[in-house]
Amino acid sequence: MTPGGSSERSRNRRRMRGARIGTARSGSLPLCLVILLGSSCHMLHGQEVAPYLQGGERGQQVVLEGNRLVLTCPAGGSWPLQYRWTLNNTNVTDWTPQYRLSMPSLKRADAGSYQCMVRNRMGAVIHRRTEVHVAFMGNFSAGEQRKTATRGRAAIISPPPLASFPRPLVTWYKDGHKIIPNNRIAITLDNHLVVLATTAADAGRYHVEALNEMTGENVTSPAVYLSVSVCLQRRQRDVT
């Protein structure tokens, strides 16, 4: 064996050993990257999210009396989420996992401003208010009335009190005949009947019919009897 051959074999062994080390080093890099990425993903999935809103109810709702009311409070965030409802800033529920508020038979007293709050371990958020109106038609709360007007002067006849939502449409009648406003008879925005320069022909029985367009109900008021008198001073002047 020549010295030159021994040296060549030594160099080959060193090259092979270096190649194995390089392969091991290059192969370990993807493994490190996988470990790092796995740790990052684990930290991302473990991060909790505070509640946030996901839309909401309409700003106003009108529901018929006796019908069911359902309000929802859509929100996102880390679970568990808890919800609490208020009516006119007063709690109507305790904290609950239910995001719906359900009332099977709505009453007039249930009308008002509803709002929900959502919370989890990271914080809380409040939904916007929802105004709930209860549509209903009550009855006239007064009995028959009698009113006296002076001939030649204006007479104002007010409709009897009536509880209703929304505000009803009112039609006036005299002696069973519908009153058509003219240059002497007018109906105000508050449904008062105004008769200018009354005459003896204006005396009679007046009443109103009220219609709630939302509920479809129609009620008739008690009568208002109007009598027209002659001014006392005029009577005295006519006598002398």
UniProtKB/TrEMBL annotation:
Region annotation Disordered: where it falls in the sequence: 1-20
- Database matches in SMART domains: IG, IGc2
What does UniProt give as the signal peptide span? Answer: 1-46
Superkingdom assignment: Eukaryota
> InterPro entries of this UniProt entry?
Ig-like_dom, Ig-like_dom_sf, Ig-like_fold, Ig_I-set, Ig_sub, Ig_sub2
- Origin organism of this chain? Fundulus heteroclitus (Killifish)
Record domain Ig-like: where = 51-133
A Pfam entry, by short name: Ig_3
Asked if Signal is a keyword of the record, the answer is yes
* Protein name per the record: Ig-like domain-containing protein
Q: Which UniProt keywords apply?
A: Immunoglobulin domain, Signal
